[in-house]
Structures are given as C-alpha cells and as structure tokens.
Fold this sequence. Notes:
Layout (H helix, E strand, L loop, with lengths): L1 H19 L3 H20 L1 H14 L2 H17 L3 H25 L21 H20 L7 H21 L5 H28 L4 H6 L8
Amino acid sequence: MRNSAVVSGGLALLLLVLVVTGWSPLLSFDRAVDEALHRSAVAHPGFTRLNRVLSDWVWDPWTLRALALAVALALLRYGWRRLALWVAGTCAVAAGVQQGVKALVGRERPVWPDPVDSASYSAFPSGHAMTAAVVCGLLLWVLALVGREPWRGWGTAAGVAAVSVLGVGWTRMYLGVHWPSDVLAGWLLGWCCVAVAVVTYRGSLDRRPLPRRARARGESRREGP
C-alpha cells in the first residue's frame, strides 16, 4: 500500500506539472475528448439530464461525504473509535488537498457556446472524482477491516464502488465541466489519500502499547469493539 501511495501521488504530481506547463499533447487530447462528448450531450438531452441527476445528487461530493460521516458515526457506536477518526479525518484532509490544489493550479473549465451544465471554481483536479475515489476506497477498506467472516456481498460492494468512481468521472466530462486530465488527477489524488490513510492507520496500531500479558505472549493486536 505504501508503494501505491507513492505511485499514485507521483503520477498526480506529473499530471499537475503537465497541466501547469501547458503540455500540448495533453491539452489537445483533453479538448478532443470534451468536444466529442459535448456534441453528444447537446444531441441527447434526455441522457444529459440523467447525467446531471447522477452528478448533482447521487454522486455529489456532499452526498458522498455524508455517507462517510454516517459510516464514521456507526463505527464510533460499535467501538471502532480509531477507525472512525481515520475515516472522518481522511475525508477532511482530502477536501483540503483538493481545494488547495485547485487554488494552486487555477485551471479554467471548458467553455461552450451552448453549455448543458455549469460549475464554479478551478477545474483541476475534479472534486467529484477525487471525493468519489476517497469515500469509496475508504468504505471498501472499512468493510475489509470490520468484516470478521467472508462476506458474500463483497463483490457487489466493490462493483458499486467501481461504477460510482468511474461513473462520476464520466458525468463530469460528459456535462462539459471538466477536462479528462482533471478527472484522472482526481482519481489519482483520491487513491493516494486512501493509501496514505491505510498506511498511517497500520502504523498507529503498531505504535500502540500492548497490555502486559499480550506482550508476554507476543500476541498480535487488532482494534475492535
């Protein structure tokens, strides 16, 4: 997981540099993809409305953060205090990183003569994509930690998470409010935040002192109720 954090963070940094320096192949690719999607959005208003509902309500960052908060409160209730803190804290830190990078880069959003949707503030990275990656990644991690037996619904949960992360990125591009590189950067930064959360959580457990009897027996520890 440590390597995953380094790789995703490094790729996000590389993408940031390419955007800031205006690397023409990337900008040309962004423009070509968005122009094709925008033509489709204008030509298919019904499908465009569906994308707006998914983007503005189902996969809205505040909807996903509320879900993460509900999970954190449930963890608190059942005694997983440290894990609840990590979930809430990671979401807060990710939101701060997202806004900080947006302010640093200051990338303009796509502009269309016939827009099908609108959005404010800087484009890079996509807040929707980053929040979806963070929340879905955290929730899958929580399921893996809390579940004491193999859960039959794991495949369904992973599928819903994958559809949500990929789907929200699609909607932001289809609605013409983000460049593809904005979405990719959001995914990379989001996963980096999750990976760092997993690594630091494990480290916090390793540093936690064991009861005397457990030390004597050399037992492993695990947080739980």
